[in-house]
Amino acid sequence: MIDELKPYLNFTQLIVTMSFVCFCLCYNRKSYIHKLLFTLLLFTFLTEIANFFLMVFNKREIVRINYSLFSLLFNCIWLLLFERIVEKRWHIKSLIIAYLVLGFINLSFYEGIKQFDHYNFIVGAFMYVFLFIYESFDQIKKEKLAFFQTNNYLLLFSPIIFMLGYSILISFNNRTLNATIVFAGRTLYDIIGYFINFIYYSLLITYCFREKNTKYV
């Protein structure tokens, strides 16, 4: 039984679980930022569990739908986190509403539900990256360099490589290249994905430990 499940187990599932557990240890119910991050990590954890069982039962089409819907949620929560941390100087909620409307139109009429909706992820990711870069330069312009040493900045930076990495990876949509076996039966897509996830979740875990230590200072 265990041998049959091994092909469906991967590094991403492990590090997602570790990140969720680590965050639960430092979770502060009074913090709105923590509530948003908890929601994100909870849905990430549940999505990975659900997709594991769907893969076991060969329901790959539902896996693609799950990831498409999750990508919308993922980008929206990061935009809300950005809005909260930079003190609502952007009309983020208006951007989110527009993004969701366009996302569901794309999901319903353009890319559809038979494949992962690349454009939804890429558009949301680049919206966040643009806001992050603009805000970073704005902080430098105002000589608020201490901002870059804060835990909140670490949190805002954590999804950047994840967003850019996967946007580049899926924008080419070269299935032959992505399916190339590198080693141990893992594809090029898997290897690059593991690396991107390692950086993303390592930064989130670092944020968690810094938050926990801050509580006891």
Topology:
Blueprint lengths: L1 H4 L5 H16 L5 H25 L3 H26 L6 H19 L7 H24 L9 H7 L2 H12 L3 H4 L2 E3 L2 E2 H28 L2
Antiparallel strand pairs: 1-2
Helix pairs in contact: 2-3, 2-10, 3-4, 4-5, 4-6, 5-6, 6-8, 7-10, 8-10
Word description of this protein:
This protein is an all-alpha fold and 217 residues long. It contains ten helices and two strands. It has helices at 2-5, 11-26, 32-56, 60-85, 92-110, 118-141, 151-157, 160-171, 175-178, 188-215; strands spanning 181-183, 186-187. Strand 1 (181-183) and strand 2 form a beta hairpin. Helix 3 runs antiparallel to helix 4. The chain is globular, with a radius of gyration of 18 Å. It starts with a helix and ends with a helix. The mean pLDDT is 85.
Helix content: over 70%
Give the spatial strand order of the biggest sheet.
Answer: 1-2
Span between termini: 48 Å
Strand content: under 5%
Q: Which stretches are poorly predicted, pLDDT < 50 over at least 5 residues?
A: none
Largest sheet: 2 strands, antiparallel
Mean pLDDT: 85
Q: Which word captures the global form?
A: globular
Give me the strand/helix succession.
Answer: HHHHHHHHHEEH
How many helices? The count is 10
Q: In terms of structural class, how would the helical and strand content be classed?
A: mainly alpha
Number of strands: 2
Cα-based radius of gyration, to the nearest Å: 18 Å
